[in-house]
Write a structure and sequence with these properties.
This protein is mainly α. The chain has one domain: Winged helix-like DNA-binding domain superfamily/Winged helix DNA-binding domain (Arc Repressor Mutant, subunit A, Orthogonal Bundle), CATH 1.10.10.10. 52% of the residues lie in helices and 5% in strands. The chain has 7 helices and 2 strands. Helix 1 packs across helix 3 and helix 2 crosses helix 3. The longest helix is centred in the C-terminal third of the chain and has 18 residues. It is elongated.
Length: 152
């Protein structure tokens, strides 16, 4: 299973915003810090704002911040929102399934169980948990850009 670039960018954006706290972040800051596309990141930031995870502030001095506590945002909910589908194999989708073994297939059941365990693990961790070591993470972002904004 491979998560999409959009999911990756969404999680990185939320992590960065969580580390910044109330201080506004900008898409260029995150693009520079992680070495990722600002264009794709901007779409991601917009969508996270639409979903209510980010407060987007317009204008020359604008940016964004988390709109709710990082401790209330689970990694699992972000993965579910950002992934088009969590169908690991074709037979997970009744409309496109062409496998005649579907009714009795233990492999399919094993994949479903594995996905359930995977998502349960992601549901048990929040963005706050992921950045709980921000004092160690932040210097790595600064070193990557040489000019990342300071954490308050």
């Amino acid at each position: 299973m491979k998560l999409t670039m959009f999911t990756n960018f969404a999680l990185r954006t939320l992590m960065y915003a969580a580390m910044r706290g109330e201080t506004l972040s900008r898409s260029q800051d995150i693009a520079d810090a992680f070495g990722i596309s600002k264009t794709h990141l901007t779409k991601c930031i917009h969508q996270l704002g639409q979903w209510g995870y980010l407060e987007n502030v317009r204008g020359r001095t604008g940016g964004f911040r988390l709109s709710k506590p990082a401790s209330e945002i689970t990694v699992g909910e972000i993965v579910r929102r950002t992934e088009d589908t969590l169908e690991l194999v074709e037979c997970f989708n009744a409309e496109t399934n062409s496998c005649p073994l579907m009714q009795l297939c233990r492999l399919s059941l094993t994949f479903k169980k594995a996905l359930s365990v995977f998502m349960a693990e992601l549901d048990g961790i929040t963005i706050a948990d992921v950045v709980s070591n921000r004092d160690a993470l932040w210097p790595l972002l600064e070193a990557n850009t040489g000019a990342a904004a300071r954490v308050d």
